Amino acid sequence: MDPQTALDPRYSDDKAGAMPWPKAEERLAAAEVYWLTTVRPEGRPHVTPLIAVWSQGALHFCTGPDERKARNLTGNRSVVLTTGTPTLGEGFDLVVEGEAARVTDEDRLRALAEAYVEKYGEEWRFEVRDGAFVGDGGTALVFAVAPRTAFGFAKGEPFGQTRWRF
């Protein structure tokens, strides 16, 4: 399903156009580092960098079951994932809002494990066991975040803000 796409004229140059969602998906797939925001039990945000893969319309990340982000997700599945260019005058930033859903299907996990190796190399090879990734660092739970709303921020000329609603 294609999202509803709109350019926000309040934050966009007159020459800007809305980025088509397939182009945003390409950027999400190509990014190497993402920032995940979760919510602590007392309501404070927690932000951490991580790696992820884009597959079947969702960003997928993994984390140890005892890590802060995993503990936060047990109480509140709402997350924000961001990626982009750390410059002001050029590049494109993306923000994905959604809900983290645990992935436990072993066929799906095997495909995701292979996607990690394809994207990040052999040092990110995982085995799949008991509905999770298993690697040198131990067990890692895998989560999928399908966008509920996403934003794209074109920097430079022309600057613009695209919103996608799913």
From TrEMBL:
The keyword Oxidoreductase appears for this protein: yes
Keyword tags: Oxidoreductase
Domain Pyridoxamine 5'-phosphate oxidase N-terminal, chain residue ranges per copy: 22-124
One Pfam family in the UniProt entry: PNPOx_N
InterPro entries the UniProt entry points to: F420H2_bilvrd_red/Heme_oxyg, Pyridox_Oxase_N, Split_barrel_FMN-bd
Gene3D superfamilies, per database record: Electron Transport, Fmn-binding Protein, Chain A (2.30.110.10)
Protein's name in the database: Pyridoxamine 5'-phosphate oxidase family protein
Phylogenetic lineage: Bacteria, Bacillati, Actinomycetota, Actinomycetes, Kitasatosporales
